[in-house]
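Researcher: Structure prediction, please.
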Amino acid sequence: MCRVRGFSKILWCWCAPHVHVANLCSFRALTGHFRFVKRWRRPVERPHSWLFGGKMILDGCAIVVLEVVTPEMRKSTEVTLDDLALAHKMDCQEESEESGDERRKERPVLAEEQGQDMPVDIGSIELDSDAEEVDLNHCRIGKIERFETLRNVRVLCLRQNVIKKIENLESLTMLQELDLNDNLLTRIENLNALESLEILDLSFNSLRKIEGLERLSKLKKLFLVNNKIVKVEKLEHLQELEMLELGSNRIRSNRLTKIEGLRFLVNLQELYLSHNGIEIIEGLENNRKLTTLDIASNRIKKIENLNHLVHLQEFWMNDNLISNWNDLDELNNAKELQTIYLERNPLHQDPQYRRKIMLVLPWVQQIDATFVRI
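Model: Predicted structure follows.
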């Protein structure tokens, strides 16, 4: 058991060497309740070894999946997540299909559990008026109120509660980070007083529009993962923004299908748009400072309009429809490119897949999940 900030229930499990982070979304088929949050990878001390990780949300329970890929582990026996999926299915109810606005179907509440799932009055929670960081993660808070005494707070975490509306934050003028991940929000509103805000996390809610951010001119990181947003808009005032995460936004058949609304974000360095319905790479002409571009798991057929991204270091393009090797010429100016993911595109079937990438982009250090051997 290990604590990860923002999650109260953590289950660790080890994956087989053949299971890669980019494949985590395939676990949806096992449970039907899989929600992809983020992936990371970093080298470990042993040579030719990498640590891969991914966070999944399974009906409120966060599961962290890790994989250490070493030469020895590649010879180990196969391990699956069938037992994990079966256990989870036994504990979870079927997700509701009756309304696009419902995030999940509430399971029946037993008599002895009544009161445990009811929203908590924040007045019953003791707050330190001098605190600069306030963590109210998973406290069953139903309403934002009574924060007037927190004059010095700079970081406020309200993750995994049952908050339906952003309100009563006007007094928190010193606030720099606000985390409302995994609540019941349907609108972005009442944030105008938070002009010092630099980090805003509104992921895993039911937001349909990007709005209410006009006064947040100092915002540097904006997380809107897994909402119901279908259009990128009203970001022109966020010219200091360095990171934008918009992965997994869709409403049943409707998806985020275009890259747009980014032309004023001239300082943007990291852009995450995976798991949407994007078909064309476009609208990035002014985002010349991009170092990370993640447009994996979309419907893109051609790598184009990227030759101006000379500072690109990571390019995630796996699980698309790329079939022409000449498309890689679009990255010839990206001399700082270190990592490229192209697996599960049509060109991945080429027996000379890795060799051809290395010929076009000889400075790349990692192709998919594997280091380039020098």
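Model: Residues 10-91 form one domain.
Researcher: Thanks, that helps.
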